[in-house]
Amino acid sequence: MVVITRTNGFTRLLGLGHILWIPLLLFLAGRFRSVPADDLYGTWLRLVVVLNLMSLVLDAVDVARFARGERSEIVSVE
Predict the structure, then answer these.
(1) Which structural domain range is residue 24 located in?
(2) N or C: which end of the chain has fewer CB within 10 A?
């Protein structure tokens, strides 16, 4: 993400940095069968997966918008 920021600035392309969450989500979702949903840890586990999936969707939208030409910086430091 440092390289992306250094080369492109603080743009929507930074969503690519979260692609490594996909294996994490697959790993966590694979634990659903072994942890009951009514257990506190099971609830936390499912909540983490849902929130990370939502974040990945937002990141995918941002990267798609960057690919379609929205390449201006999101945050500018002045």
Answers:
(1) 2-67
(2) C
